[in-house]
Amino acid sequence: MERRFVDNLPPMDLMRSEKMTSVQLIIPVESAHRAVSYLGEVGLLQFRDLNADKSPFQRTFVNQVKRCAEMSRKLRFFKDQISKASLLSSAHPVIQSDIELEELERRLAEHENELMEMNANGEKLRLSYNELLEFKLVLQKAVGFLVSSGSHAVSERELDENVYSKDDYVETASLLEQEMRSGRSDQSGLRFISGIICKSKVLRFERILFRATRGNMLFNQASADEEIMDPVSSEMVEKTVFVVFFSGEQAKTKILKICEAFGANFYPVPEDITKQRQITREVSSRLGELEATLDAGMRHRNKALASINIHLAKWISMVRREKAVYDILNMLNFDVTKKCLVGEGWCPIFAKNQIQAALQRATFDSNSQVGIIFHVMDAVESPPTYFRTNKFTNAFQEIVDAYGVARYQEANPSVYTVVTFPFLFAVMFGDWGHGICLLLGALVLIARESKLGTRKLGSFMEMLYGGRYVLLLMSLFSIYCGLIYNEFFSVPFHIFGGSAYKCRETSCGDAKTTGLVKYQDPYPFGVDPSWRGSRSELPFLNSLKMKMSILLGVAQMNLGIILSYFNGRFFGSSLDIRYQFVPQMIFLNSLFGYLSLLIITKWCTGSQADLYHVIIYMFLSPTDDLGENQLFWGQRPLQIILLLLALIAVPWMLFPKPFILKRLHTERFQGRTYGILGTSEMDLEVEPDSERLHYEDFNFSEVFVHQMIHSIEFVLGAVSNTASYLRLWALSLAHSELSTVFYEKVLLLAWGYDNIIIRLVGLAVFAFATAFILLMMETLSAFLHALRLHWVEFQNKFYHGDGYKFRPFSFTTLTEDED
Amino acid sequence: MYGFEALTFNVHAGYLEAIVRGHRAGLLTAADYNNLCQCETLDDIKMHLSATEYGPYLQNEPSPLHTTTIVEKCTLKLVEDYKHMLCQATEPLSTFLEYITYGHMIDNVVLIVTGTLHERDVQELLEKCHPLGMFDSIATLAVAQNMRELYRLVLVDTPLAPYFSECITSEDLDDMNIEIMRNTLYKAYLEDFYRFCQKLGGATAEIMSDLLSFEADRRAVNISINSIGTELTRDDRKKLYSNFGLLHPYGHEELAVCEDIDQVRGVMEKYPPYQSIFSKLSYGESQMLDKAFYEEEVKRLCLAFEQQFHYGVFFAYMRLREQEIRNLMWISECVAQNQKSRVHDSVVFIF
Description:
- The complex is a heterodimer.
- In chain A, 60% of the residues lie in helices and 7% in strands.
- By secondary structure, chain A is of the alpha+beta class.
- In chain A, the strands form 4 sheets. In chain A, strands 1, 2, 9, 10 and 11 form a 5-stranded antiparallel beta sheet that branches. A 4-stranded antiparallel beta sheet of chain A has the order 4-7-3-8, with helices on both faces.
- The longest helix of chain A has 58 residues, at 273-330.
- Chain A is extended.
- Residues 151-187 and 675-694 of chain A have low confidence and may be disordered.
- By secondary structure, chain B is an all-alpha fold.
- Chain B contains 18 helices and no strands.
- Chain B is globular, with a radius of gyration of 21 Å.
- The model of chain B has no long low-confidence stretch (mean pLDDT 86).
- At the A-B interface, helix 3, helix 6 and helix 7 of A face helix 3 and helix 8 of B.
- Chain B: Keywords: Hydrogen ion transport, Ion transport, Transport.
- Chain B: GO terms for molecular function: proton-transporting ATPase activity, rotational mechanism.
């Protein structure tokens, strides 16, 4: 009867992971590439690496992988160049027919050579341009020095030579120059070098010059008016023009060497003014020419880059796909004849036809004589877990997977998490004002889904975006719970009619001390609004929320244990049902199920019984008379029976299972010493998993200890987990108290003043506190607590979570960071 | 605070210690070397390295690779690690980190001076310098004609200046003098570093004194072997030995009078830690000595990671990385020159 009922339950897609099968592919070499790329488009086959022991460069298709890496390097180079030239990436890539990889490789190489050549030419031009520009700057500035010192010199011509020996070098300098001016053609040995150097190096340059010539030099500098582009980093650099006056041949070689070491360029400046003018003119005209050439070159280069840019996105994705295909091909094995590639992997059973069709298409398209063989085979290891999710259920599945990926085909808690998770969150976050704020946020995220989905978001936004549907449900449930708690930013509203209570007096001054009197039917939905601030508020809400937490907790834990029954049934292990599920059910329900029964009875009958007393004395003296705490007839014998059941349930879940396992083991292997030989050959008729799994060593003490730990954990957990659900009450209380504080102590206090500024400040503080503390931090904490309740209290009843995820080879999952 | 490093160490250096231990975990393992030794071309090496921490540095290199590119890029990684750590470091760790580079600085100075002596192009020489030992006015070294000028012009601004005080002579620079200068500088540097570590105290002093003593002793042995048959007098030779280390002072006395390599061996075998090194060598052989010393050094450097709360890990990491880069260079050279049988001659496995 029961069996038929369970079998007739409608199938749930999410409840069990997809049925997987291990498959083997035998692909002729000529169609291998096409087949794998078609499979990548289907995206439902996970390949197993059959060459795990080989290093990457010993694999078959290493050369192709290398070529792809080389191409993606070139593409990165183009991308870099394009972003340097600050061209916008084209939003609408042109649709063009697929080109072959070889063709692409050729074109990429062409483009790269072209670009390199252009860059080299540009650099050369830029270099000579820089040189001329520097020359021009030096001419401009140095002439200034020479002329000014020249005019100086005329007036100081009479100065004696003995000034020379003075260390004061400003004077010496002018004298030197004077002499140089006067005797520019004679061999007095005074010369100068003019040049240009990076501004950041000037100080050190001057210092070294000073040291090298022992102070026998004069250093003049002026910063250049224009910045010059550094050809290597293509950044603008500030430069300084300098003129060094010195004497002697040795000093000259030294100074030239130092100039070279500092990367300073020196340019000859003629002393004759007419000559200077002439050279300046020449330089300027040549500069103009060069500038025009440079501009033309830049335009040409930009045009070339733009033409690359159109195809870039397509090329990048194409190369990425090719690389992925070759990576997969590298995971395949060559068979003996070297004519076929053998691949193994996992695929969901429903996808078999799809895959077969893709393979046939590949055979047809590549004109192969031999078809691709695709067949199911046995596998020793357990299959991967694959849930088909949509954008709504995905986030909930992620929440469960974050704890552990489900074992193959075990009951998936995310089916229930979809509802229970936002609901438990809302129990802690019950405020319909805050709920509406969350709802608006969630709606914004959902409305802009398509826009946000394509963009790269920050890690925080990414998280919000990923959980947008969780957020939506959480906010809807908090509006619901907020209506029950009757809180709107902690303010109660008379939505569902008038309150059932009124004050004893008209002034209502004693509401806080003596309480209210009831004068009409109870408030129809949720908490009565008049209770806010009255004497009965906290005792009533605490009692309500605490009991509600226990009821919710017991219900969820029962669900967890029931799921373990479904697991046991599904995997055909009656042992787990009889010796684990049944005693667990009995234990939990005889204690906490009974407590829930008492709570509900008390609510329904309005009895004054003290439930603490009932439960405590149920253990301490179960035979005593309950007195006024009796809720219903026959309570005492029921309690005794439940207590006995609970006591029996503990050894029931502890002892039988390991002993039965041991007996089964010995029975199975009696006289099997010879049998093993027979099955060592592949025997396809025997069902694979019943055969292989039981060859494992059976270690009784290990099994027993494991069972003991499990039982102790369950028995203690029944108490501690129930207590853990009280966090629902605690957090909900904290949330409502916190919002009350902000409302009363900030907003109402500020509103009490008749001053617009104080009111505004109060409003601002209230808004800030609501947004950051109540909406962000409280949401986070309630989220985390709901997470814990699911991961620990709910899932430890049935969930193993030791599976591994199905990772199909699919082009859609290839991302940029795989490069 | 001596002996209480655990209490305060993490305040300033905890983050960096974590970083450096993370870097150490990225060093190539024996399995990596085995794979690398099987490579057929330099592209294979690049492919294998792309899965390691060197990956991002090599990925944008165009395909006909050269050994120099590989070494350059690997060194670049080391330099960037170092610079990152130096930026984050506070006193005295930052000084400690700077000390690590002085050795390279000395090598660079010597390289440039020797190069200019043989009239090589300065730019070419600069490219050969180790990037960790670069300083601002290094190119100006080419100007100097003798030691005094070298000091007065350039080195006075660098941290090497105090080490130079011992070798200022107006002698012209020649190969012999430069070599002496290198060793004098190195001796002064090691002694200074040793003193600094002793001043730091605690586990740093303990571990660094072991590592630096080993370094000093190795240099002493190398100086002795290299100066056999040159005109260097015994006293001059003795002056080049550092004033600490296991061999100081009695071993130095004996080393100073050695006339051939077997005498050096005789001296060294009296010291148990070095016995094992020399027992691997056959008599009269000095070719494999370097490798034996490197192996011993790597062993000691790895041991530095066994203890926490000291600066030795930074020194050890830098040295291990350098050894790794030497290994990579050797492997790449062997692969490039088709000498794969000799791959194992000079590779020192780190783990």
